[in-house]
């Protein structure tokens, strides 16, 4: 139960009645009746407004001189609830206490401050008319992020727009900035602009990303801070989705019999693709490409390659980028042919095509190369082997030439 204005009023009325009722205005009456022994009470200075963080103790001090028989009370200004009279707390709030200090000062203390304590408090003297002063308490609140009103992780197709939002509360109102979790710059496209602008941080609770590109994919952090520690942050992961893209840096690889050779495909895809290698079927007129036609026609279809003693299959991924590696061990004539790296995800499918051919060495020279792992980079390989074989030389020159001229390469019959 809280006492409201009632008690003070009663006190005020009683004080008024005590003065002799000779028809003079009450204030004058009061003044005159007490003037010799008891000068009018008055405030000394002002009540300082104070600011404290939530959880701490706030103190408002009200200083009065010449109080005499009058009383000092503390009220909450918003609803006029009486909190204390003289040295006595009259509200049932264990966090409120009063202290009478050095004769003149009445202190109102509110411990374990809450946001609801924010507001103004009135120090009243029950003179007639009553005298009052007001002091206000501001309660600082550290920032908080409202999850329900902030972005969750999101997936957006490339070319579409996305808005990352972070709603923060606190007092003072927190600042919100965005940065990328990986420390990279944030790329922002101004409306109507084609260029992406690089910024380390973005100020504002809403980060709008127009016509997303895949490099904008990543984890973003919104950080809310005000003068009250600690700052808080939220992580929003943005996935930019697109169909796989496959690129084979080297599409032609020559290698001597008996060696190991590595084929590489670079893949970009989001969401993460399922990737595998196929070896094209051999047909009478060369090498079949992977097509449903060849599968349906009953001709030998492409063979799915599995990791094992013959093939070493690995895949490395870093974000939306990946590398597919196929090592064909102990290269033999039957390994000559077309290989396909295939990558599929929910948005599409892509494949790269590579061709393996045999480099003929001088008789007897082939064994020395057994342990040699040929990396992709057919040109380098071809150049290095130029001297090795005269008959190979013409080959590789024509190969070099066709690669340089970007002409479609016609392969001669290998098995001749
Ligand atoms: C305290 O704040 C109140 C309300 O904002 C204002 O009216 C009053 O003048 C302030 N007091 C002082 C001493 O600044
Ligand atoms: C973002 O806010 C910080 C700190 O308030 C300020 O230093 C910076 O200049 C602001 N940047 C922009 C782009 O408004």
TrEMBL record:
UniProt keyword Plastid, yes or no: no
Pfam families documented for this protein: Ig_3 (PF13927), V-set (PF07686)
Alphabetical UniProt keywords: Cell membrane, Disulfide bond, Glycoprotein, Immunoglobulin domain, Membrane, Repeat, Signal
All copies of domain Ig-like, residue ranges: 41-135, 143-239, 244-355
Protein name in the entry: Lachesin
Cellular localisation: Cell membrane
Chief location bin: membrane
SMART domains: IG, IGc2
Transmembrane segments: none
Domain of life (superkingdom): Eukaryota
Record-linked InterPro entries: Ig-like_dom, Ig-like_dom_sf, Ig-like_fold, Ig_sub, Ig_sub2, Ig_V-set, Neural/epithelial_adhesion
Any single Gene Ontology cellular-component annotation: neuron projection
Signal peptide: 1-21
Gene3D superfamilies tied to this protein: Immunoglobulins (2.60.40.10)
């Amino acid at each position: 139960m809280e006492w409201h204005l009632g008690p003070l009023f009663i006190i005020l009325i009683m004080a008024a009645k005590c003065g002799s009722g000779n028809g003079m205005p009450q204030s004058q009456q009061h003044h005159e009746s007490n003037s010799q022994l008891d000068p009018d009470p008055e405030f000394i200075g002002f009540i300082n407004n104070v600011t404290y963080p939530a959880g701490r103790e706030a103190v408002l001090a009200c200083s009065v001189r010449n109080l005499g028989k009058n009383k000092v009370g503390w009220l909450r200004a918003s609803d006029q609830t009486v909190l204390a009279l003289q040295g006595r707390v009259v509200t049932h709030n264990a966090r409120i206490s009063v202290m009478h200090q050095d004769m003149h000062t009445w202190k109102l203390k509110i411990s374990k401050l809450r946001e609801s304590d924010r507001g103004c408090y009135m120090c009243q003297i029950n003179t007639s008319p009553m005298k009052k002063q007001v002091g206000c308490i501001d309660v600082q609140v550290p920032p908080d992020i409202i999850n329900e009103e902030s972005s969750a992780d999101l997936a957006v197709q490339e070319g579409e727009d996305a808005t990352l939002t972070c709603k923060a509360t606190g007092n003072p109102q927190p600042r919100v900035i965005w940065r990328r979790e990986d420390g990279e710059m944030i790329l922002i496209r101004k409306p109507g602009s084609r260029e992406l602008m690089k910024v380390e941080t973005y100020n504002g609770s809403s980060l709008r990303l127009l016509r997303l590109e895949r490099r904008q994919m990543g984890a973003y952090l919104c950080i809310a801070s005000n003068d009250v520690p600690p700052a808080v942050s939220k992580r929003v992961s943005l996935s930019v989705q697109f169909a796989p893209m496959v690129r084979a840096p080297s599409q032609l690889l020559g290698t001597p019999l008996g060696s190991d050779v590595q084929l590489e495909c670079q893949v970009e895809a989001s969401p993460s693709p399922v990737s595998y290698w196929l070896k094209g079927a051999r047909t009478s007129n060369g090498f079949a490409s992977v097509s449903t036609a060849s599968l349906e026609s009953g001709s030998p279809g492409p063979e799915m390659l599995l990791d094992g003693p013959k093939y070493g299959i690995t895949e490395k991924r870093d974000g939306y980028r990946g590398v597919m590696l196929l090592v064909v061990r102990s290269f033999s004539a039957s390994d000559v042919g077309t290989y396909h790296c295939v990558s599929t995800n929910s948005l599409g499918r892509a494949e790269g095509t590579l061709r393996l051919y045999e480099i003929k060495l001088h008789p007897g020279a082939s064994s020395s190369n057994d342990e040699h792992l040929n990396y992709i980079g057919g040109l380098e390989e071809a150049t290095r082997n130029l001297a090795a074989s005269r008959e190979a030389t013409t080959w590789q020159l024509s190969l070099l030439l066709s690669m340089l001229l970007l002409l479609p390469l016609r392969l001669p019959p290998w098995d001749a």
